[in-house]
Design goal:
This protein is mainly β. Helices cover 6% and strands 52% of the residues.
Length: 174
């Protein structure tokens, strides 16, 4: 894993009105406010059109499915990263029967309201770069520290670890 540290320089609070496109509005604000690196701290609201994509396979290259849903939905959360001015955000929505979500795409239309809060980051540069070994476009952090991350056995196609019993203690397992 690679990580970097910085600080939040300022916070930009955005209110979107009925009929506005969520992602395109966020892109407009990021350009106008010249936000190069940041985090989408929170987002909530309602939609009447929801456009997203999600991965459908565990292998490389990943296969994506693009979906548009048209009905009243509550935005449960919007979170993401702004790296070198580019937004990568995920969104979760729900109706009275189920919840679902994925990568935020253009075409998410605000039903009544949508509020989003962005924190502009100083002290760390972020950008999305394609990794030659996987072909995936992933976040790169500079200056960054590289350390090995904890691994879980049993990834796609491998053996699964035995579940550990829940103990009720902090951390949940023995």
């Amino acid at each position: 894993m690679v990580f970097g540290t910085g600080s939040i320089r300022r916070v930009v609070v955005i209110h979107l009105d009925r009929g506005e496109d969520v992602l395109e509005s966020l892109r407009q604000i990021v350009r106008a406010e010249q936000i190069r690196n940041g985090v989408i701290l929170t987002g909530y609201g309602t939609l009447d059109r929801f456009s997203y994509h999600a991965v459908t396979t565990a292998g490389l290259p990943p296969q994506d499915r693009f979906v548009t849903v048209e009905r009243p939905l509550e935005i449960v959360g919007i979170h993401g990263v702004i790296a070198d001015g580019e937004i990568h955000a995920h969104i979760a929505v729900a109706d009275l029967e189920r919840g679902f979500g994925g990568h935020l795409e253009p075409g998410c239309r605000v039903l009544y309201l949508c509020d989003v809060v962005i924190g502009e980051v100083d002290g760390v540069d972020m950008r999305f770069e394609t990794r030659p070994e996987t072909g995936l476009r992933l976040l790169n952090v500079s200056p960054g520290h590289e350390v090995p991350g904890p691994r879980i056995d049993g990834g796609p196609g491998g053996p699964r670890p035995e579940p550990r019993p829940y103990t009720g203690r902090p951390g949940g397992h023995e």
